[in-house]
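A common beginner's mistake is to predict each chain separately and then try to dock the pieces by hand. The better habit, illustrated here, is to supply every component at once so that their relative placement is modeled jointly.
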Amino acid sequence: STVVLVFEAPSNFKFTLEQGQKVKMGQAIGT
Amino acid sequence: LFSAWKDTKVKWTPIPVGLGIGFLCFLQYRRVVKRERERLDGDEVVRRKYVASGPWQVHVAAALPLRSMSRLWGAFNSINIPEFLRPAGFKLYSWIFGCNLDEMKVKDLKAYPNLSAFFYRELEEGARPVADAPLVSPSDGKVLHFGVVEERNIEQIKGVTYSLDALLGMDNNSTRAIENVRFDPNTAAVEEEEFANVNGINYSLDDMLGSSDNAVKTVSSVGPDGLAREAKDERSNMESEELVRLADIEPSGDLSHRTKPGNSLFFAVIYLAPGDYHRFHSPADWVVQMRRHFAGELFSVSPYFVKLLENLFVLNERVVLMGKWRHGFFSMIPVGATNVGSIKINFDEALRTNRKEDLATGTYTEVSYKSASKRLGGKPVCRGEEVGGFYLG
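With all components supplied together, the output reads:
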């Protein structure tokens, strides 16, 4: 299963992620 | 022949009633068969627009009755396991798929009657602290891809994209056979002027929207320890500000996600492995205005298949939740897979996924959540609040 997020944000929005990274629910993924 | 024709006496007799009824039934049967054939032919036309393409592995998978297999898998895993076998069986599953049994809410493995119940297990309180950030991960999992949506296309893997409009149901192909279902307010978790937050504490929406000086006064129940109460009170103040902001944001019309000046559209794809916690939570404070349920195929969504199968996320069954957050358009899309075909949304009891009668044609049914809160224009969900989950089969 997969969860896809699509959202509008200011153009200077940055993901704090790396491809292939494991994440936990509630972990920050962007600023 | 001549004499027979000439001399045979014509004898009129009434037709038996049963024969007449049988004849009418036969006519009706032919009419129904013809109508169903025409309907299936029409669905086939739509289906051809969503054809799986890729190497031979994709064609092998496409030839399999994945939806039937998924339902069979779900039914099999719903069979209760003898109590004495449960600990060993679930430990074996956990060892194979890397489940962390220490963070389960109910640690007694005998309490889970079958694998489906174990798969949909809850986590203990505090196992997943919600970060103080505007956007958090909705689930446990592996980040498959993320980035900016360019020219209304989302990158599936490097160099291969799928259409954002097809994913959300904005294109002409997927608008066929839309069935607009009126959202039943009785099934919503939210009353018009009041909602319960994830901790089970009720607040008046008027207070949350700032009509009252102190929203915390409306807390009807608090946790037993002072620290927990203090933390909840701080969060309620934050939610109050956020709800004021969300109430002020105008619904984005047809949700065609035209971004405001200075904004862009972003996407992130998180893959849940079989051993992961399979409930998903709200990644932000936002208002869900509608959902679209696409009855689709149930291909595997493992990283291996993501690389093989083009348009995978557009082909598969999915539930598109759309609404608004502080920056504008927001959407969360749980996508099903062969082993987890059933998607549950906690505040939408009418939703039924992976049903035999729904053909995998790429069409969708749409439900509006506006009746959940007239002021907010939808169902408000807080960051970290459980929204739903994936069931086996």
